[in-house]
Amino acid sequence: MLRKIKNISDFIDSKIKHMIIFLMGILVLSILVQIFYRFLIVKHTGRSFPYVYEGARYLLIWITYLTIAINLKENSHPFLDLFINKLPPRGQKIMYIFHGVLIFIFSILIIVKGKGLIELTKNITTPTLEISIAWIYAAPVIGSMLILINLIPYIVNKIDDISKKENM
Are 147 and 73 in contact (CB under 8 A)? Predict the structure, then answer.
């Protein structure tokens, strides 16, 4: 069962990584075009691309929430490792489980409250791009769902690492 969850998690993460790279490419390209346009063309025409700023902001929100789950799985998120490494192995296990439970509760809270926000804002559109605000509020919900998928392998890997240290 755990192996199956890890395989699903790995598959989803590989797709999310590709999506993040694609979104980052769009973000960088659109901002570069806006900079070029602002310094070379706006001086002469007085017009710019107002949708680039709004689009970049929303892309950055999505990129942030998508990368949080991957960072959790790859253990590249900030955590109190200095404090935890000073604990005995049993204390480390307890802290990592406690950490996982806190993340689990917080993710569930974001999903539940976020679904409500999505419902409330589905008919409201952004000023420039005229897309539903619900798409922006969906980023934390989807990011939290991805965190939940990656949370089980994260906790199991941490406990396995500590158990290996105990047996050495």
Answer: no
pTM, two decimals, is 0.83
Indicate the average pLDDT of the chain. Answer: 87
Cβ(87)–Cβ(149) below 8 Å: no
For the chain, the first-to-last Cα distance in angstroms comes to 28
Q: How many CA atoms lie within 13 A of 45 on its CB side?
A: 9
| Nearest by Cα to 159 from 99, 78, 108 | 99
Q: Half-sphere exposure of 26 toward its Cβ, with a 13 Å CA cutoff?
A: 15
Q: How far apart are CA 67 and CA 80, in angstroms?
A: 20
Is 87 in contact with 95 (CB distance < 8 Å)? yes
For the residues 72-76, what does the mean pLDDT come to? 79
CA–CA dist 53, 31 (Å, integer): 8
Tokens linked to 16? 């999310």
How far is Cα 11 from Cα 151, in angstroms, rounded to an integer? 15
Q: How does pLDDT run across 134-146, given as a tens digit for each residue?
A: 999 999 999 999 9
CA distances from 125 to 77, 93, 100, 118, 142 (A): 33, 46, 36, 12, 20
- 84 token code pair: 């935890």
